[in-house]
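Structure request: Adenosylmethionine-8-amino-7-oxononanoate aminotransferase, Vibrio ouci.
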Amino acid sequence: MDLAFDRRHIWHPYTSTLTPLTCYPVSSAKGVMLELEDGKQLVDGMSSWWSAIHGYNHPYLNQAAHSQIDKMSHVMFGGITHEPAINLCKKLLSLAPNNLQHVFLADSGSVAVEVSLKMALQYWHAKGESRPKFLTLRDGYHGDTFAAMSVTDPDNSMHSLYKGFLPEHIFAQSPKTGYWQEWNESDLDDFKQKLNQHHQEIAAVILEPIVQGAGGMRIYHPNFLKGVRDLCDQFGVLLILDEIATGFGRTGKMFACEHADIQPDILCVGKALTSGYMTLSATLASSEVAHTVCGGDAGCFMHGPTFMGNPLACAVATASMELLEQNHWQAQTKQIESLFAELLPKLMHYDLVDDVRWLGAIGVVETKSPVNMENIQAHFVDQGVWIRPFGKLIYMMPPFISEAEHVGKLVGAIETALQDPNCFQ
Ligand SMILES: *Cc1c(COP(=O)(O)O)cnc(C)c1O
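Returned structure:
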């Protein structure tokens, strides 16, 4: 591979053209393994950012892609419909909370978030109310497009860069009580106070249920989410749940909102929707939301991407849902969770470790010093694993098909990194 060309001309996520970091050339992937160009095999601990839940190069998903591409890869969705979209939306509605009855197919997670925010704004517009604000949590992450950025944590993201351009929304303290800790009601105080003060201008609350992902890998108590649902009902504000990271079994439940036994008014899914085969996302809405939006002056929901409902992506996503229906994801994520519960607390013996936490197939080691990205990445590759930390967070969300030996190897590689000062700043 022409890595010199890559370094000189290609942007990777959040990278500099001036000081590009090393990129490892992957030539193929199968099951839980990534294969580098030189033949080295890495146990994947990332599922390509939450997405490849069934592992790579899966025969059933490959078959779905092959048989769809021989019929058509894409047709427009305006005025046309097709079997792959219908099949997928049927599956989605059968898996999602049962109050959700309408599906908007979109291209990426960020777009699904944009769509959800637009739905909420159109909902209140149709009711003749002006509600230009959203309420969300600190430490959240909802994507890189403008509206999604505007509800992402203002301090650990790029808000200050875009000040004056980003709309300013309302941020409540994120929950402090961890998933496995004893619930503390005062966690909800700030949220309650913000809602009380601003509810007349708030269109919706948007948050990541149970696990705040890219904004800090925080795993919080279900009672917080229950409280949020109650307060939204009490103040008459819509609740949007962003399950782009947590959806499809990752937290040990099909959707993370099931931990709190609540239903959102609008739900965003993405990432694992196609099990990492291609980009696709969806925004699901209740009938009350959908019909109110469409009953307004506009007479429709104002959005329609060119590649909406891409048949190839829909066919693979349907196959991925079928695997979820038959493929023992509950036992798999339970096994991964009990391995994390057994192995991660042992790492607390290292001075460098500040906290360890886990839920379902998510395991997190928070360190006291930030990692040295270049060195720790080289260390992990040397140890035969693929883990991509950020800041003080070394985290794993392996494919559900990972066996005990794979999880052991991932945690083992983190342990040896903790023994190597070069891996940290
Ligand atoms: C990744 C992510 C997004 C953005 O999805 P993209 O596909 O990267 O646009 C939004 N919300 C959450 C919770 C995410 O984890």
